[in-house]
Write a structure and sequence with these properties.
about 160 residues, 7 strands, about 40% strand
Length: about 160
């Protein structure tokens, strides 16, 4: 069962929104508040199936590292990244793109599990879930901003 889902309506094609969502460069722009950097694996451009990226970021008063891998890829309909190394017990992020009359419905389906048993479940319920929701909502706002203006051309140059 998903931890949470975020739906974002974007006025552009699913191809553009799909590619912006897998852009390492746009991810860095959208997460500037946490000083994210891509430090290993795919560090710029568009991430593809079976590629990994390791992020370094300031979260919850500590520098943290998170490595994810693209484990499913169906252009331009969906892709899934999954944590292969990090502080969480598990993390999976399905990105789903549905064409509609005005553009694209972008769905983020997050499966998130904290470590530390019952204590982790309590922290998840009280704090962690909302923390991730806020981060992803801010990221989606940037994707929407780029997609609905000419800014997407700066990211998707080719």
């Amino acid at each position: 069962m998903p931890s949470f889902t975020i739906n974002t309506h974007i006025n552009n094609t699913s191809e553009i929104v799909f590619n912006l969502s897998r852009s390492i460069d746009l991810h860095l722009i959208s997460t500037s508040k946490t000083n994210e950097k891509a430090v290993a694996g795919k560090t710029s451009g568009l991430i593809n199936l079976n590629e990994t990226v390791t992020w370094e970021a300031d979260h919850l008063f500590k520098k943290r590292y998170f490595t994810s891998k693209i484990i499913q890829y169906n252009y331009p309909h969906s892709f899934t990244d999954e944590m292969i190394k990090g502080d969480l017990k598990s993390f999976s992020h399905q990105h789903i793109f549905e064409k509609n009359k005005v553009g694209t419905l972008m769905k983020d389906v997050i499966y998130l599990e904290a470590p530390f048993g019952l204590l982790g479940k309590f922290v998840m319920w009280i704090f962690l879930k909302n923390y991730f929701k806020k981060l992803l909502t801010e990221r989606n706002t940037i994707i929407k901003q780029f997609a609905e203006s000419e800014q997407w051309k700066m990211i998707l140059k080719n």
